[in-house]
Amino acid sequence: MASLAAGDKSPLSRADYAAAASRLGCEVEALMAVAEVESGRLGAFAPDGRPVILFEPHVFARFTGQQFNESHPHLSSRRWNRALYPRGGQGPIYDQLAEAYALNGEAALKATSWGRFQILGQHFSWQGFPDAHGFVAALASSEARQLASFERFITHNNLDDELRRLDWRGFAAGYNGPAFEQNRYDQRMAEAYARLKAAA
Questions:
Q1: Structural contact between residues 150 and 89, judged by C-beta atoms closer than 8 angstroms
Q2: What is the DSSP letter of 112?
Q3: Dihedral sign for Cα atoms in the order 66, 72, 76, 81
Q4: 54-58, 100-104, 158-162, 174-178: which range is least confident on average?
Q5: 55-83 pLDDT, tens per residue?
Q6: Cα–chain center distance at 61
Q7: d(CA 157, CA 151)
Q8: What is the spatial distance between Cα 26 and Cα 77, in angstroms, rounded to a whole number?
Q9: Residue 23: CB partners within 8 Å, gap ≥ 6?
Q10: Which of 50, 103, 51 lies closest to 75, judged by CA?
Q11: Model-level pTM?
């Protein structure tokens, strides 16, 4: 996993967000609010240069046909389970990913959310990559690549209208999935937007 260290760790500027917002037709604070909620103080990269990640055991189970649910219950689960997300920062999460990778590398990468915007590796195909390995390598290379992927995600899933309307509930449902309410994604994005807008 050390090979995932970024070649360019330059942080995104407000101008970068503004350019993407212009293309999407939404407010810059709307995009910045999503970024803040998705990765928070962690940002795009951990101190060791690897992208911030979150391994999703229920997604890994789906991509491996549930075959590791009994042998590796801490890595594979039929349903989302908060208890399966390790505490202690990115180190333990990367350890979790490495263990899953040893079982099924492609499935492990597809079941992990990557970078500032926490985009799952499972989206590699319509993002223009032949496999999850290539997609992850691109996301690991720079924040600029992560922003480009985020923009593609929004347009591919027709979420630009929700951002323009500041329909945070609709956006969170499309971006975070049907269980978005469990983590208050819509409320947190609305709060972050209001704070960023007030400070602009």
A1: no
A2: E
A3: positive
A4: 174-178
A5: 999 999 999 999 999 999 999 999 999 99
A6: 18
A7: 10
A8: 37
A9: 151
A10: 103
A11: 0.91
DSSP 26-77: S-HHHHHHHHHHHHGGG-SB-TTSPBPEEE-HHHHHHHTTTTTTTT-TTT--
Element (DSSP H or E) covering residue 141: helix 132-141
For residue 45, what are its two tokens? 């990269």
d(CA 98, CA 156): 30
Mapping DSSP to helix (H, G, I), strand (E, B) and coil, where does residue 137 land?
helix
- Judge whether 50 and 4 are in contact, CB under 8 Å: yes
Return the SS3 of 22: helix
Q: Quick one: which of 13, 38, 34, 40 has its CA closest to 193? A: 34
pLDDT tens-digit profile of 85-95?
A: 999 889 999 99
How far apart are the C-alpha atoms of 1 and 90, rounded to whole Å? Answer: 12
